[in-house]
């Protein structure tokens, strides 16, 4: 969740995150092919001086506070479920609504994110998102019943829905090519960090105190935005020429020659206007239908593999499996996400997309199988000493496997398989499907667990198995291919 396509503002096209994910340290000359089929020297746009990089780094640090906030919101419900239900006397249905309504807010935030970001600017959109999150956290902190609790969760969801779009866009638009890939990957890494920190703090603080900790990244973001420039690309797009040049010079250094980059940005703006704006219905044309099946299918399998159910309510899952305390499992769950996500980012361009997806889905299948087996043994009073071990091992294997592939790769492939003229409409549809699936899974998880824990994880295992078949039969390998090569592969 939360990785979207970013605009290649240097060369007049839109590229996905795959084109941005280049190593921090690059060779002397790199040939990059953009989506318009033009090859450019990747080292040619290194305009800034060594000293100017600090403003880019500061701007990125401020922006990824929003990514950290995203993770904090997602991770909040897992360690707090039993305490909130006990303190506010919530039914299972009421808490399920609280946990899942975040995704409804995020869905609306993602849908409106493009309009908000273009109207208010990148900084304005981040301020708006932080304000919604602050309002939401305060509502959660002061809530004495389900209504205010749900309102607060919905507000934080709407805020992170916008964050999920504007943060990678802002970073891509301010960073020089030579370090853009490394800086953009910080977005996903900070989401995972925020979630892990929420898990860890939730084991040692009350649910109200944990809500207050969610204010910290928002306040850091709001303060930091006073010290960083607006995106030069957005300023150029809205015709604020003077501010555009000032912002670009702040980012590249006062002694840097920014004339070439400024001219490239202006060409990009002109080219962008020349492309016809595609509508959602255009995606169902024969020439786009296979790309649509791949993009939507990957998001369906990503969500219906159960990630938001397992992640939102992992503490109660451990308790249900027979652990006297959920803290050990929750801490292990939190700690494993960050290093595995880093490994997945490293393997993305080494192993290829398809192998990483199939290994990841195989791991989530095995993790669900082990967790379901632990509940089966418990319900039949068999090997009871092994039940908690299997539950923790299964869940940890599940989240490690998901983090290494199924978490990020579907978003990368989505950004690569759609032609530039329909990428905006396709991105909106895919994001909508993703958040809708997230809501269905997070809302139904507790009810499914009440019905049958073994059955619940068997369903998720089934979707993981179907993911392997789907990738093997339908999804093309996009590693190292230009857009034209990818389209030819899909058409064949």
Measured between the Cα atoms of the first and last residue, the distance is: 30 Å
Strand content: under 5%
Specify the structural class: mainly alpha
Average per-residue pLDDT, rounded, comes to 80
Helix content: over 70%
> Which stretches are poorly predicted, pLDDT < 50 over at least 5 residues?
1-51
Report the principal-axis shape. Answer: globular
Widest beta sheet: strand line-up: 1-2
Supply database-style keywords.
disordered N terminus, 492 residues, mainly alpha, two-stranded antiparallel sheet, globular
Describe the structure.
The chain is an all-alpha fold. 75% of the residues lie in helices and 2% in strands. The protein is built from 21 helices and four strands. It has helices at residues 17-20, 53-75, 77-88, 92-142, 146-174, 177-202, 207-213, 215-224, 232-237, 241-252, 259-274, 286-304, 307-312, 314-320, 327-351, 353-379, 387-406, 409-417, 423-451, 453-473, 483-491; strands spanning 6-8, 13-15, 31-33, 39-41. The strands form two sheets. It has a two-stranded antiparallel ribbon with strand order 1-2. The protein has a two-stranded antiparallel ribbon with strand order 3-4. α6 (177-202) packs antiparallel against α15 (327-351) and α19 (423-451) runs antiparallel to α20. The longest helix has 51 residues, at 92-142. It is globular and about 75 Å long. Mean pLDDT is 80; it is low at 1-51.
Give a brief rundown of this model.
Helices cover about 75% and strands about 0% of the residues. With about 500 residues, the chain is mainly α.
């Amino acid at each position: 969740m939360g990785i979207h396509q970013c605009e290649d503002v240097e060369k007049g096209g839109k590229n996905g995150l795959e084109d941005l994910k280049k190593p921090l340290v690059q060779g002397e000359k790199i040939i990059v092919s953009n989506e318009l089929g033009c090859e450019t020297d990747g080292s040619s746009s290194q305009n800034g001086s060594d000293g100017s990089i600090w403003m880019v780094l500061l701007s990125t640090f401020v922006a990824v506070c929003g990514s950290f906030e995203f993770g904090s919101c997602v991770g909040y419900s897992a360690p707090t479920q039993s305490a909130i239900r006990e303190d506010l006397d919530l039914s299972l249905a009421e808490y399920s609504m609280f946990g899942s309504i975040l995704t409804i807010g995020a869905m609306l935030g993602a849908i409106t994110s493009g309009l908000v970001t273009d109207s208010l600017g990148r900084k304005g959109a981040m301020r708006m998102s932080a304000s919604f999150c602050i309002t939401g956290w305060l509502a959660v902190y002061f809530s004495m019943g389900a209504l205010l609790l749900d309102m607060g969760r919905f507000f934080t969801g709407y805020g992170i829905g916008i964050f999920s779009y504007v943060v990678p866009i802002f970073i891509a638009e301010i960073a020089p090519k030579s370090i853009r890939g490394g800086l953009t990957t910080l977005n996903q890494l900070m989401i995972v960090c925020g979630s892990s920190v929420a898990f860890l703090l939730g084991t040692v603080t009350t649910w109200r105190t944990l809500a207050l900790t969610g204010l910290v990244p928002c306040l850091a973001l709001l303060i930091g935005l006073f010290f960083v420039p607006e995106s030069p690309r957005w300023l150029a797009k809205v015709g604020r020429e003077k501010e555009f040049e000032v912002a670009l010079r702040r980012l590249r250094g006062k002694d840097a020659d920014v004339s070439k980059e400024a001219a490239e940005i202006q060409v990009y703006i002109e080219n962008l206007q020349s492309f016809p704006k595609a509508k959602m219905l255009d995606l169902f044309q024969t020439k786009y239908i296979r790309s649509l099946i791949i993009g939507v299918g990957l998001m369906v399998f990503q969500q219906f593999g159960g990630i938001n159910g397992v992640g939102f309510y992992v503490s109660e899952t451990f308790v249900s499996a027979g652990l006297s305390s959920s803290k050990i499992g929750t801490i292990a769950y939190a700690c494993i996400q960050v290093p595995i996500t880093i490994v997945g980012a490293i393997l993305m361009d080494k192993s290829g997309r398809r192998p990483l997806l199939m290994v990841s889905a195989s791991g989530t299948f095995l993790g669900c199988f082990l967790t379901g087996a632990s509940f089966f043994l418990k319900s039949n009073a068999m090997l009871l000493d092994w039940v908690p071990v299997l539950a923790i091992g299964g869940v940890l294997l599940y989240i490690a496997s998901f983090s290494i592939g199924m978490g990020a790769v579907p978003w990368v492939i989505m950004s690569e398989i759609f032609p530039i003229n329909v990428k905006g409409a396709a991105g909106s549809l895919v994001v909508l499907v993703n958040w809708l699936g997230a809501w269905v899974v997070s809302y139904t998880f507790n009810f499914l667990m009440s019905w049958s824990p073994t059955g619940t994880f068997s369903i998720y295992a089934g979707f993981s198995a179907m993911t392997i078949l789907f990738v093997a039969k339908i999804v093309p390998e996009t590693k190292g291919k230009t857009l034209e090569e990818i389209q030819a592969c899909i058409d064949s």
